[in-house]
Amino acid sequence: MGNSFALRTDLYELNMMQTYVNRGLQDKKVVFDLFFRKLPFGNGYAVFVGLDSILDFVTGIRFAEDDLEYLESLGFNAKFLEVLRELRFSGNIYAMREGEIIFPNEPVLTVEAPMIEALLIETSILNIFNHETLIATKASRIKQVTGENQVIEFGARRGHGLDASLYGARATYIAGFAGTSLVEAGKRFKIPVLGTMSHAFIQSFNCEIEAFRAYSEENKDNIILLVDTYNTLRSGIPNAIKVAKELEAKGIKVKAVRLDSGDLTYLSREARKMLDNEGLNYIKIVASSDLDENVITDLKLQGAKIDIYAVGTRVITGYDQPALGGVYKLVEVLDEEERIPKIKLSDNIEKIINPGRKKVFRIVNRETGKAEADYITRYDEVLPREGKDLLLFDPISPWKKKMVKEYVAIELQKEVVKDGQRCGPSGDVAEARKLCAASLDLLWDEHKRRINPQTYFVDLSEKLWYLKKEMIERVTNGAE
């Protein structure tokens, strides 16, 4: 049976591919940009995750015999099927690194390949990008409000499928979470795994304290006691204190207690008092129960005594925004040695794509160490020498201008696939996690606000802006 995932594409991609093959155009080379148009959750930035999965998919794609038999049953012709039998991705891919902070309308990933190959991969790479970037952005948003407090991903059972939970856990770790409850994610991606106990475990014993003792005896290095099965303050915490005292006499320490229901502010404050009164100030308080950045913000404002937050459903599903809305658009056609930029128009000016192959730079002010804007140029354009003044202007409202002095320009895209072979990063989550933290440090706090963040500008060079303007005029005047 086939397991190459080559059929994880939309039917219209194959219909278009067959048309190219039948007309002898299968080797026609093109350039596509992958990007998104609007930030999710009302956030001020997004976190790019999914590159490793995309590269694994693209460089491994192939059609198995049973895939081809199925396509034949759909009416695809023998000539096309023979091309698919030998098809391997042979193009080049340029991308930002995983963990990079990204913004609307800038090319996060660029594909340069024969048209049929570029079409075949579209559905899956958008699927990966849209999902993993969405979850990473939600996780980063949550991490922004937890501050120094740890936050753990507990959402596997609520994810939209097994793969969504697995790769969602990876995305949350890159975005700053301390670990996950999902064991496979720990094994595959080298993410710390953490866990406690369930209410069912406690219910299965004759009494709560018996369950606490049994669990503690078998899990001496990771004792986290769930204290809200019956009554948090009258039963759970008192029994946890008894067990903690018994274990102290044996040189063992309870790591934490976990609250999973009720008024978390009140219960955590009372639990903290009870624990501290018994000299158990080293026992941390973990809280779960449908947490997200909004609930956590309120808990902190109300003085909750919570050390570790366990977040499940509302991070692993994206919850308040089910889709990112990333797109994949043709921006250039290669005709022998000539590069021909392409544009798509829209009645909505913000949906008009930026034509041609491009470069993306992050402009960092040398004096402040903070990012001023992202700057998109034509691919063959040379940036003014660093240290010179750089004029930035809003591409939608070009009269809004700013001159940046003494800047550093960081090119964001790197070649990650060359002639079909992976040459980019290893997909190491620790490296992506460090990059995410470092990239966030470049942003002003105003861009990281949970509500009404300051807009971070993505600007076009004059040459790219004029090319776009000329192409719009040419198309609207009927020259295309």
Architecture overview:
By secondary structure, this protein is of the alpha/beta class. It folds into two domains: 11-135 and 322-476, nicotinate phosphoribosyltransferase; 195-300, Aldolase class I (TIM Barrel, Alpha-Beta Barrel). It is built from 16 helices and 21 strands. The protein has helices at residues 11-22, 51-60, 65-73, 78-86, 115-120, 122-146, 162-174, 183-189, 199-203, 208-218, 232-248, 264-277, 293-301, 313-316, 429-441, 462-476, and strands spanning 29-36, 46-47, 92-95, 101-102, 109-114, 150-153, 179-180, 224-226, 256-259, 284-287, 308-311, 326-335, 338-341, 358-365, 371-378, 390-393, 401-404, 407-411, 414-418, 421-422, 458-460. A seven-stranded antiparallel beta sheet has the order 13-12-1-5-3-19-20. Strands 7-6-11-10-9-8 form a six-stranded parallel beta sheet. Strands 18-14-15-21 form a four-stranded mixed beta sheet. The protein is globular, with a radius of gyration of 26 Å.
Short description:
The chain has 16 helices and 21 strands.
Index terms:
single chain; 480 residues; alpha/beta; nicotinate phosphoribosyltransferase; TIM Barrel; seven-stranded antiparallel β-sheet; 21 strands
Number of domains: 2
- The quaternary structure here is single chain
Segments where pLDDT lies below 50 for 5+ residues?
none
Q: State the end-to-end CA separation.
A: 46 Å
Shape field: globular
CATH architecture type of the largest domain: Alpha-Beta Barrel
Estimate percent helicity. 25-40%
CATH H level of the largest domain: which superfamily? nicotinate phosphoribosyltransferase
Strand content: 15-25%
Rg over CA atoms: 26 Å
**CATH overall fold name of the largest domain:** nicotinate phosphoribosyltransferase
Largest β-sheet summary: 7 strands, antiparallel
